[in-house]
Amino acid sequence: MPTPKLEPEQISQVSGLVSRQRVPQPAPVMWLWASFETAVGATLLWVVARSIPQGQPLLRGWVGMLGLILLLHFGTFQIVSLLWQSVGVRAEPIMSAPLRSTSLGEFWGKRWNLGFRQLSHELLFGPLHRRLGANSAGFLVFAVSGLIHDLVISLPARGGFGLPTLYFLLQGAGMTVEHSRFGKRVGLGRGVRGWCFMTVILAAPIFLLFHPWFVMRVILPFMEAIHAL
Question: Which of 41, 84, 165, 191 is a Cys-bridge partner for 71, taking CB atoms 3.0 to 4.6 Å apart?
Answer without folding.
Answer: 41
